[in-house]
Amino acid sequence: NESKATPADAPVVGMLAEAVKQVYGVEARPIGIGGGTVGAYLRNAGLDCVVWSKMNETAHQPNENADIANIIGDAKVFAALAMAP
To answer: I need a labelling partner for 31 at 20 to 30 A (CA). Which of 2, 3, 43, 83 fits?
Structure first.
């Protein structure tokens, strides 16, 4: 399901970047991804959407895994995003 990209200046992009900075202390930079996500459905419904995850370099590999620290940190990012003004 294809969709147009969320504009880099959409409010949700800045809100996510701020949440990432609060939790991880790093500057996030918006990029596109080649794979499909549920974001396409949300954008096609007229909603600006961002996708975020702190991943290991093992995505889609036989040894794919997720660090518990990343899962907890990402939950904190989404909590900060949900609480943003």
So the answer is: 83
